[in-house]
Design goal:
Length: 140
């Protein structure tokens, strides 16, 4: 698993059209469009090797918590993002992983927004400019 994170003043998205994925999450009024203030925005890719690692999600949660603790924030945005990395996991594994990450973070007390899987979105993000405002991680 890999992710790139941005500490933002604000983040907004709006679902625009279906992607080419064979898994298309249902769009509702709750997930069609949203704005989040003072958040950690995570662009996450699940990789093929993650499917064999039973601890990958727990390790990711630990890394995300470290970052949010340093930033002293509780709002998190999860964006499924396959565009930066080569050997991606299956769609099914990725979809279930994103839902699990969302659920695990919520049980830790975070307010989590997860963008719908399989859709293109308009994005507006106002990123901060301090040393921890952009972080990448490779979770193994």
């Amino acid at each position: 698993m890999r992710f790139i994170s941005f500490h933002v003043n604000s983040f907004w998205y709006k679902v625009t059209k279906k992607g080419r994925s064979s898994i298309i999450e249902k769009i509702t009024e709750d997930n069609r469009e949203k704005r989040v203030e003072e958040a950690l925005v995570l662009f996450i890719s699940m990789e093929m090797q993650d499917e064999k690692n039973t601890e990958i999600l727990e390790r990711a949660i630990v890394e995300i918590e470290k970052i949010t603790n340093q930033l002293k924030i509780t709002n998190i945005v999860i964006i499924p993002y396959a565009h930066l990395f080569g050997k991606l996991s299956t769609l099914e594994f990725a979809f279930e992983s994103f839902k699990s990450i969302e659920s695990l973070l919520k049980t830790q007390g975070f307010s989590v927004t997860r963008l719908p899987f399989g859709w293109f979105n308009k994005l507006d993000m106002k990123a901060k400019g301090h040393p921890l405002s952009r972080i990448s991680r490779k979770i193994r």
